[in-house]
Every structure is written in C-alpha cells, then in structure tokens.
Predict the 3D structure of the following.
Amino acid sequence: MAGHGADEHPHGADRLCEAGDRVYSRAVRRGRLPRRDAEPVPCLLELALLHPDPDDMDWLVPTSPQEVMTRLLRGMYDEISASQRRVGSAVEAFEWYAGLGRRVSASHPATEGPAIRVLDGLARIQAAMDEATQACTTEVLTVQPGGIRREAELSEGLHRAMALRGRGVRMRDLYTHVARHGHGLLTYLELMGDAVEARTLDEVIERLILFDRTVAFIPANAERTMALELRHPALVEYLGTVFDRLWRLAIPLTAPLPDTGIEGISHREQAIAALLAEGHQDAVIAERLGISVRTCRAHIARLSETLGAASRTQLGVRIAQAGLDGPRHSAQAGPDGPRHSAQVPLTLPDQGPRNAR
C-alpha cells in the first residue's frame, strides 16, 4: 500500500474519491471483495466503509449503505446543533451587552459607539435597515424563522428586492420547512430568477439579516420592537459563518424533503416526535417548527394513530421503539448543489428583526 497514504485521499464518506466510489460500489454489489482490490483506496478502510471478513481475513466486506447514511446524518445533526447552541449563547451575550450599553448611555449618551447600536422603536429599525439596503452592493443573507410568509407581505416589498437584483446583489434566505407551503415564495422564484436562493431546515435560529457581511441586524427583545445593529467585524464575521454552516446543511426550496423511511410518518411528524422525546410542550414545538399549535396537535394525533399509542406516555414509548427519538436530519445541500431559489423582500416591517413569527 505504499504510495497510497491518507494524504492522497483528503475526503470523508460524504464525498468519496473516484477510485473509492468504484471499489465500494463493487463491494456492495458483490457482497465482498479481495483485500488486494482495496489496496489503492485505503480511504475505504479508514472511513470504515470496508472491514475484514471474519471468516476469511483475505477478503473485505462493505458496511451497508443504510448504515453509512445514518452515520452521515448523525454527524450533520451534531454539527448543526452545535452551531445553534453557539448562536443562542451569542444572542444572550448581545442582549446582556445591549442592556449594559443602555444603562451607560443614559448617563453618558456620547459613549454609544457604532460597533453595537440599539435601535429602539419600529421607525428607527426600518430607517436603519433602509440605509443598509441602499448601501448594499454584493450580498444579503437572511434567516426567517416562523411559518408561511403571507403573499401580501411579499408583494409589498417586491420593488426593494428588484432594486437589489438590479444592482447585482446576491441574496440568500433560510426558512423552516413549513415555508415551502406558501405560494408567495414560488412566485418570487419566477420573478427573481437566479439572483436569489432559498433553502429550508426543520428549525432555524432567530431572525437575522446581514448586508455585505459588514452590518447585521438581530432582535433585541421578544416583541421585536427593538433590534441590535452590529458593525463589529468579529461579531458580523461570526454570524456570517453560522449562516454559511446552516446554509450548507439546508435543503433547496424546490428539492423534496428526505423520506423518513417509516411508512405513514412524514418528515414533519418525525421532527415533532424527536422534540416530544426531548420533553417539549406542544406550544414550544409549534414555535420551533413554525406551525400553529393546532397543526402541531393534529400531527401528534396522527403520530399516535400510526404508532398505535393510546396516551402521551405510551406515545413516548412508541417513539423510542420506532427510533424517532433520535436526531432530526436535513439532507445536505453543498455549495455546488442545485440553486433553486426564492426570495423574500427585505427592509419591510415584517422582514426586520422586530417582526413576530
């Protein structure tokens, strides 16, 4: 195996080299292959895609594709969960600093600096975002939590999105999967063309808008009547990195959601089952997935019927037995993947950090 070290195979199981793809595919079709056939591709052994046959050590048998997929999905879930926890901690820190800044500025108004600015009131938030929109020249990134966007809200801001497109600004949006059911987004797909992209996840972080990776807006209170305007390079870069990580894990808007592999249980019901297993109440689950409490309970009722549970306690047991209490996964969409997209207009009251879900 000399000359075929790991340095020549710098990849993971999610993107095999050409030789590794060919040898692993042959092993899956045949059930096993001679060890010598795998010598040019040590990556398959290092990634545990091939392992010795216990009955004959001169042969190698493949790890099943289903097991490999489960391993990849679990890794992606761990990655996105870690990103969301870091964002949650950062938002809490921003709120603490914002509160401290307000107390200081009450007695020393001149000390408020441009790196972190508190925008108090809807008019001030909108004015700041309008200014950032007009100055934007290259890129807008947004995270839009909640459910379906109303078509009237989308149409109202179409001219702003068209103006950004006219200046060659690239726009990318992240939504929850529920947003896929809104016809307004599909209309924007046709109107905006290749200038914009949209992807979805089971859950996204709190509302976020970044312009040219130089200024970001996030909520400063639960009602979104206050916002933080962030221009500190380290903070803005951090938020941009979080967005990029979530974007890589999200699914293009027009691509189908992955099948759960369990008959009668939808992707959304799988997500609800996992949150129930974590001990969350119906209202919390609904908020995190961007659906109404009524819809959430209807899905829970279907879960109970499908799994044959007569009570919530029994449902928890059946969820665990079915393996639905584990991670909720979204198929990975790499940067070179499909660019099917839609765009929600920016700088509207409903687009700013202050809006309710």
